[in-house]
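SAMPLE LOG
Freezer: B-3
Tube label: C17
Construct: single chain, 229 aa
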Amino acid sequence: MQLKLQKEDFGDAALIRCQGRIVLGEEIRALQHEAEEIPLQGKKVILELAEVSFIDSAGVGALVRLLGVLRAHGGGLKLCRLSPFVAKVLEVTNLRSVLPSYASEQEALQAFGQAPQREKESFESVTTRIVCTDDSHDLLAYLKALLARSGYEVLTTRRPSEALTLVKVTRPHLVICGPGMQANQVAMDGLRSGAPGARLLLLPADFSAADAGHAGTHLVEQVRTLIAS
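STRUCTURE (predicted):
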């Protein structure tokens, strides 16, 4: 189903009601376009997701990235009335505290005036460093939020030359390469030779378009196994 968006003023926030799928491609671009039309400075945005039937990894990354942009301009993002699918995705990926959600639009609006809650302690050692590289902003945003909530120190970059510098300087335990980076054979050869002591994890081609909950939990399990070994 094509993503349908309805925007309205809600108190001193902009409310965007979403219906359909938040997925890689036109759907994410439509949501980003709708958000970009909102004046950024100090803007509060509420996404109502009661009728969102599916969200993929890129979709979650797009929400995380929108949150960062709004916060950087003194605003914020809240979710409300999550559909069962979206609620499950945020639960299994441990991202409910990253993307706060509320039972109603009014509760979400009121939450903007509350002090932010401290995040729970992470499960892993924060000394474990991971470099993630791909050409997609949204994929990198999802990976950073997902892995940081699992307790890892995460560095991301879209530039092949910067990725090579990062692995040489920071000596990560693991390097995760998205499909976009894997298409650059020269960059991949450089990463393999530049970080001989690091594990290399290649994401499948359909990672961005996969069920965000399934893809995210599977990735965290892979990361834990690779680092433990």
